[in-house]
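Sample entry copied in:
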Amino acid sequence: MRDWPVKRLSRSEIWRDSLDLRRSTGIHGQSQIDFLDLLRNRLPKLGGRFSKLEVVVQEDDQLHGLPALTRYVRGGTIRVFVTKTTERDAILGINGGQEILGHELGHVRYHEGEPKAYLAGDF
């Protein structure tokens, strides 16, 4: 296993970043985040490194037991692969579908083309 660089983020840094992201994507007034909409529609409209963000829905068996997976492709494309079940669960708000996509958002937000581990407080 490779020894990736680690950046430790404080809770206040994560909170500020979350507020900035909510404001820039126009969801600051929403009490619940629709992570599927955020990844599919709102982040790509921000431009920059998010302009090539794609959500790709696949059959459940294509991800080898994973509910979702984020990949960085040459040329700056970021692809979030999700199973049909995860997509359905996120739409219906059941079985942790939104939480899974929130986890993938973390990869999209904090990785910049290469894997890096980000730690938040004691997590």
